[in-house]
Predict the 3D structure of the following.
Amino acid sequence: MSNRLINEKSPYLRQHAENPVDWYPWGEEAFEKARREDKPVFLSIGYATCHWCHVMAHESFEDPEVAAILNERYVPVKVDREERPDVDSVYMQACIAANGSGGWPLTAILTSEQEPFFVGTYFPKESRGGRMGLKFLLTAIADKWAHDREALLHTAKEMTAYLRQEAKAGEPAENLPKKAAEQLMAAYDEEYGGFGRAPKFPTPHNLIFLMEYAAAAEDRKPRAAVEQTLRQMLRGGICDHFGGGFCRYSTDREWLKPHFEKTLYDNALMALCLTEAWQDGHMARWRDAAEQTLDYCLRELKAPDGGFYSGQDADSEGQEGAYYLFTPEKVCNVLGAEAGKHFCECYDITAEGNFEGKSIPNLLLNNRWNFVPEGYEEYREKLREYREKRMPLFTDTKILTGWNGLMLMALSRAAHAFKDRRYLLEAQELAAFILKNMRRDGRLMASLCDRELRFDASLSDHAFAALGLLELYAADFDPRHILDAVSLASELPARFADPKGGYFDTPSDGEKLLLRPKETQDGALPCGNSAAAQLFVRLFRLTAEETWRVLSEKQLAFIGSAAGAAPAASCAGLTALLFTEKSARELTLVLPTEEIPDEMKLVTETWAPNLSVLLKTPSRAERLAKAAPFTAAMEAKDGRPSVYVCENGTCQQPVCF
């Protein structure tokens, strides 16, 4: 018999619609029931492609014994963290505060007023290996609720008070980018790349920061660290050698054994990072990897009606990573005995295997990885097609605004860098999709699933979408993209601003939670405050409007004070600071016709993070003047192509070609 989740749109929630647990979606109905029946709320937060969420579901939420306890003594509530990052943020803060770390599935027990008094992550059904079992936990807390409730309520009040206390901002430290780079380099693994030991996450925004810091500081070491990290990821099992793209993270130091889920945001950011790596030096391996990552997203994550899905599952047919694992026998069956033998030698596919008796294809033992034999691309494609046919791979079909904004950034940068019209058309289509289909009554929404828009867009949704539009402007120079980005960016001070500095993650007119989340440090992707800093800086550089100058200066000051003793946790925001500290240059190319001279193409195609370029042609002039009013007076001198150069706030006389 189905529970209430059968009416939800989220694929994750619908995965639990047939559980014997009487799940409620997050909402007033659940909390009203808790008040009416005098029960605590059992909150479980996860997402559709999460392996350990599946494990806990199979062990406990599909179990009649556990379900009976939950249904009788609790009000059970399920939340998709990707659909409700605001709810997830509140209780993840509580989990980290209580335990020193967090993760998913996230398990919290709350009062009917949403106050947590117990928070953890994964629990097996029965206690084992020093880990408390869920059945024991539920029974113990329910008994305490019945006989010693005051102790639980006291804990709830204390935890809520702790969560609501404001972080103390310090004075912005000097040389924050340098300190952030030093912190990252102190954790750098010289042998295998990456930072720290295990598990290892790609965190592409940190790699982008290091590349731009290396260019600004003329320090080669951070750039070398980025290249070694990318090289090892591309060799390891975290990279899908047959289908392109990257898995979520590596469970080991060597990048061999991934957590096999793939997310849109990881792959969008990795494609952006690899494209930027290619822009500085034109090394073919970075372009190949960027294109393979984008092509994976276009092939497997693009929705038929436009937009991109959220990700793909780590599990196939109930087994973690089964979709990606091979044996020599399977390879030889597809490629033939002789070709299969050599292919297995190249990609470390052995009889003993490297993961639970089977093999994750990788190039870590192949010291000739730059010289994979000719024809292997065809073999990889055959194995990809075989893999698709042999078992299904679940795809979470939510379309999330912020993650699509990141994909717009990646496609646009690739279109610009590689001069690839295919990526340009995809980027233009995605931009149109976001602006048309992710808004309701003119307001940006967070999620589209099964043709239904839901939930208010967050700070990062607005910022990522606007940054994607600015990247698209650099690819096709259509001023409408700047105007659309300005429209989205204007929502930030209007609906998200904290009078004490920075921006809340949720809008002022959105749903009221236990507290209003405000993330100031980057995680798996840049936080909303970091993205806002980048957005304001770029808008000021392009438009020269005072509004964006003031907002960018305030936001950078906030980022600086929030970074505190851990600037490496704010790398995306500090990338925006680098953009202002370097010798900033703005170029406006004014042309008498629509054709761009080859000499000017060299300017627009050069990698220079400190350079902003505007293009004024007869067809663009009117819209460009609306987006960047200072360009209205700029003319093609004597009817010849002219370049107006400004550097550090000082403009020179135009140079004519």
Notes: The chain has a mean pLDDT of 93. The first strand starts at residue 24 and ends at 25. The CA atoms of residues 259 and 625 lie 49 Å apart.
